[in-house]
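Appendix C: a fully annotated inverse folding record. The material below is reproduced so that readers can follow the format used throughout the book. The structure is listed first as tokens, followed by the designed sequence.
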């Protein structure tokens, strides 16, 4: 914990510096989150310019997701061991340089390779941010407010990406969805070097578990690949899906066994003893899987059924961003302090479930203001309440030396949930659409029927998340519900 300044003016200056530093961290996070969706709108132009095949085009997205999802946990832990500030700046440099190569790409393989490196840089940058925030803001009220700001950026950046991607692609060219990262990355890095305090990790000797790092990185990368490639294309029961899935699970099981016996594990398994940490991450997987379905399939419904252009689709999702931002930034801290993290989370999840339930009834000839807008408002309100509370709970009670690990973990479960939700819901929607087409329905009616089924399953996933919250999370008095970074416990002295 930082020393308390005795000079009042110094205290004011330090407080202002912390909040400006938060803006810098969130700018870095926004750049990473935007890149996850900004590319989707530009894919047709990229395919036409670089000659991608239909199957090859998916790798513009998949290469990024595999590197990003596979490296988050290791990157977060490296921040604890070496320096969170150092990992953040290194990741920012890798991401920015890879963005330059992406924008300059003239061949399909060059873009895919650069996207993989970009995903690695994004993982390094984003994995340590939440850990830095909880150590920068030790006071519960300030901490809850800061996490609310971060949660808004992390959650709403995807919908902003649809708008930015459509505007840049139509106004200039697809190359600029990558080039725009260059000035943002440079300015963010310059400000970060000035505003973020130098920190020293606990040392590589406290967790430089190379075999564990290789096992978890390989397992997570293969798991993400299995979800977004063979499972999405061949089905969950296909031989290739089962083979890769089994290998991924075996690698993760070997990693758990390694961490249980390693003298200095990369991921101390004691972090999962907390019901709030374990429960919050499981809830994250389920709720993000459900919400991601609405963002992805909702955008397809607007474009393929209602005939929206990419830029119109981005504008259609703006109410989610506006409502989410208002709640996350201005009111999430008050809600958590007043009602507690668990109650605030459950209330937000209920609103998300209601929003998804409404979207299960979307008609073929839907009207935006009556059939779509109410869902967008409810979704924004639910996410604005739920996700800041969820991140508070996911970071609650962790040791200062493990804040980066907890931060990387909460980012990892979000990525796994998003990839899982996309694969399952897209497969269900596609299968249902094909069945309806064979039955003789029109294309619009068949697509709408497929989306409706996916929204039913997405709603069920969020309901399951509510059940986990009720059963697993510990009820807490409101004043105890904000993140509290636990004081370090003395390590037991090992014999020998």
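Designed amino acids, in order:
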């Amino acid at each position: 914990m930082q020393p308390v300044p005795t000079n009042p003016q110094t205290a004011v200056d330090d407080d202002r510096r912390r909040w400006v530093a938060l803006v810098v961290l969130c700018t870095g996070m926004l750049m990473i989150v935007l890149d996850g969706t900004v590319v989707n709108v530009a894919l047709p132009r990229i395919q036409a310019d670089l000659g991608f095949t239909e199957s090859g085009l998916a790798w513009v997205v998949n290469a990024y997701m595999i590197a990003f999802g596979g490296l988050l946990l290791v990157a977060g832990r490296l921040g604890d061991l070496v320096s969170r500030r150092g990992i953040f700046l290194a990741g920012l440099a890798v991401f920015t340089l890879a963005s330059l190569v992406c924008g300059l790409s003239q061949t399909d393989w060059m873009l895919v390779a650069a996207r993989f490196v970009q995903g690695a840089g994004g993982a390094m940058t984003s994995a340590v941010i939440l850990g830095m925030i909880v150590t920068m803001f030790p006071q519960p009220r300030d901490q809850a407010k800061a996490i609310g700001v971060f949660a808004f950026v992390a959650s709403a950046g995807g919908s902003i990406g649809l708008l930015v991607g459509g505007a840049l692609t139509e106004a200039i060219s697809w190359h600029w969805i990558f080039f725009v990262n260059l000035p943002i990355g440079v300015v963010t890095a310059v400000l970060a070097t000035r505003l973020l305090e130098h920190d020293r990790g606990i040392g590589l000797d406290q967790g430089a578990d190379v075999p564990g790092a290789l096992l978890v990185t390989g397992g997570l990368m293969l798991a993400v690949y299995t979800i977004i490639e063979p499972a999405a294309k061949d089905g969950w029961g296909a031989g290739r899906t089962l083979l890769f899935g089994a290998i991924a699970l075996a690698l993760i099981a070997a990693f758990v066994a390694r961490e249980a016996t390693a003298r200095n594990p990369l991921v101390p398994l004691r972090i999962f003893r907390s019901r709030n940490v374990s429960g919050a991450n499981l809830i994250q997987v389920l709720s993000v899987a459900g919400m991601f379905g609405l963002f992805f399939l909702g955008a397809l419904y607007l474009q393929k059924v209602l005939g929206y252009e990419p830029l119109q689709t981005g504008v259609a999702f703006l109410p989610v961003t506006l409502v989410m931002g208002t709640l996350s930034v201005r009111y999430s801290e008050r809600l958590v302090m007043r009602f507690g993290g668990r109650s605030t989370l459950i209330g937000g999840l209920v609103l998300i479930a209601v929003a998804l339930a409404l979207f299960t009834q979307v008609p073929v000839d839907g009207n935006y203001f009556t059939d779509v807008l109410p869902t967008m408002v409810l979704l924004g309100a639910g996410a604005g309440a739920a996700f800041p509370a969820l991140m508070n709970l996911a970071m609650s009670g962790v040791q200062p030396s493990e804040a980066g690990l907890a931060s990387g973990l909460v980012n990892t479960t979000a990525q796994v949930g998003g990839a899982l939700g996309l694969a399952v819901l897209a497969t269900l929607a596609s299968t249902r659409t094909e069945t309806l087409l064979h039955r003789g329905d029109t294309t619009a009616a068949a697509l709408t029927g497929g989306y409706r089924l996916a929204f039913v399953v997405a709603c069920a996933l969020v309901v399951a998340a509510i059940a986990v919250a009720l059963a697993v999370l510990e009820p807490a008095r409101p004043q105890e519900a904000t993140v509290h970074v636990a004081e370090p416990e003395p390590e037991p002295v090992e014999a020998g």
